[in-house]
Write a structure and sequence with these properties.
Elements: H1 3-44, H2 68-97, H3 102-127, H4 132-157, H5 160-166, H6 174-198, H7 223-248, H8 255-280, H9 285-308, H10 314-327
Helix pairs in contact: 1-2, 1-4, 1-9, 2-3, 3-4, 4-6, 4-9, 5-10, 6-7, 6-9, 7-8, 8-9
């Protein structure tokens, strides 16, 4: 094939990728969120062994006979398989359309890598049951996969104004503060997943007090992790409140950060209320799934904040300013 024909084929592929990349990014982000919720369903219904100890087949069959637990686990695996195809397609589109955008290419590689790490941890847990500390990693890895897909979708849709905003000056240490909150939120989520896999959800009875005390007596090995998770949630809430108050001071310059901080504040309140509902309903499935869904949205929101305090290469920012000058 001549060089001219190769260029024509490549341009044709880029054209097709450019047309499908937006709907594909939305579908992938929503799909990854659904996979998180389905994974939580598997955990909270005790369906992790619904396909016995076989993987990727379920009970040694491509389509098994269904009991309830088998149906839950098999549907989770099926959706993950479909999503894997979508994410690989999205990554290919990103590398075709955004050849000069390092950050979005990096995020597309991260989303594919962590999807396969997530699948590998799931397979490992099925074929060789692990302790709670390892099982909790599965949800944490899923969160990173979801956040990376979400950020890819944001960058695909984000107008040039978004990149111009990202290079506006910020107060000293604000970026480090947001990154610290985001990392801390991940540790809190991991701790919550660990509590769930240890079966320690009801070790702290009542809410917001733990066993009727502000600081409970650590009478068993389960009370400590459960109380630590609650305490970490309080610290995270205060930290997000601090981000709202701080970003309010420069909201005219960076409205994106103030709006996203407010969204994080709303999500952390809803997350706390869903946690209280989990306690009040005795681990009711709906409340547990709502809690997991809100946790994912909150972490994705914090990841967006981290993206928006990351500066853009000056050359691209200048190019975007030129585009805006022409458009206006």
């Amino acid at each position: 094939m001549s060089r001219m024909n190769t260029a024509a084929v490549f341009d044709s592929l880029r054209h097709v990728a450019g047309r499908v990349i937006k709907p594909l990014s939305i579908t992938s982000a929503v799909g990854m969120w659904i996979v998180l919720i389905m994974g939580a369903t598997v955990t909270n219904t005790g369906s992790a062994r619904g396909c016995a100890d076989t993987w990727p087949l379920c009970r040694g069959q491509f389509i098994p006979q269904f009991a309830v637990s088998t149906a839950i686990e098999f549907s989770h695996r099926t959706v993950v398989a479909i999503l894997s195809v979508l994410l690989i397609a999205l990554a290919i589109c990103v590398w075709l359309v955004f050849r000069d955008r390092f950050e979005i290419k990096l995020l597309s590689a991260v989303m594919v890598a962590f999807l396969f790490v997530q699948s590998g941890l799931g397979a490992w847990a099925v074929m060789s049951p692990q302790n709670p500390a390892v099982l909790a990693l599965h949800f944490g890895v899923s969160l990173i996969a979801f956040a990376s897909v979400l950020l890819v979708a944001v960058l695909v849709f984000e107008p040039d104004q978004g990149e111009v905003l990202r290079n506006r000056p910020l107060p000293r240490y604000f970026s480090a503060y947001l990154w610290g909150i985001t990392i801390f939120s991940f540790l809190d989520v991991y701790l919550g997943a660990y509590v769930r896999h240890r079966g320690a959800d009801d070790a702290c009875s009542g809410w917001p007090l733990c066993n009727g005390q502000i600081i409970p007596a650590i009478s068993s090995g389960l009370v400590g992790p459960a109380f630590a998770h609650r305490l970490a949630a309080v610290v995270l809430s205060v930290g997000i409140g601090g981000a709202i108050a701080w970003s309010y001071r420069f909201r005219q310059v960076r409205p994106d950060l103030f709006t996203a901080s407010l969204t994080a504040g709303a999500l952390v309140v809803l997350e706390a209320l869903s946690g209280a509902l989990v306690e009040a309903t005795g681990l009711d499935l709906f409340s547990a799934l709502a809690h997991a869904a809100l946790v994912a949205l909150l972490f994705g929101n914090l990841a967006f904040l981290c993206l928006h305090v990351t500066r853009v290469a000056e050359a691209r920012t200048a190019e975007n300013r030129a585009k805006l000058a022409v458009s206006y």
